[in-house]
Amino acid sequence: MFEASDAIDLVREALLAAVVLALPMLAVGMLAGLVIGLIQALTQIQDQTVSFVPKIMAMAAVLIACLPWLMSRMVEFTRHVFEDAGGL
């Protein structure tokens, strides 16, 4: 029988997996934004596209570099969910 605690555990695990999967890209985006903001403050260039394009490029590079790890984590989580669903 499916219990409320099982649903709570599943949601908790899903949220934790989402945070772990998003962390590399968000961290690089934050670091790139900080560096670009510092450069903009030093050079007094305040154009929005100057900060947007490098952050997107950095996050895309991290996504491409981390894609094998991200996919293995997603497959591991999905396998875990299906295995636990079989035991209910």
UniProtKB/TrEMBL annotation:
One of its GO terms (cellular component) is plasma membrane. Pfam families: Bac_export_3 (PF01313). The keyword Chloroplast does not apply. Keywords: Bacterial flagellum, Cell membrane, Cell projection, Cilium, Flagellum, Membrane, Transmembrane, Transmembrane helix. GO terms for biological process: bacterial-type flagellum assembly; protein secretion. The chain crosses the membrane at residues 15-40, 52-71. InterPro entries: Bac_export_3, FliQ. It comes from the Bacteria. The keyword Zinc does not apply. It is found in: Cell membrane; Bacterial flagellum basal body. Role in flagellar biosynthesis. NCBIfam families: fliQ. Belongs to the FliQ/MopD/SpaQ family. This is Flagellar biosynthetic protein FliQ.
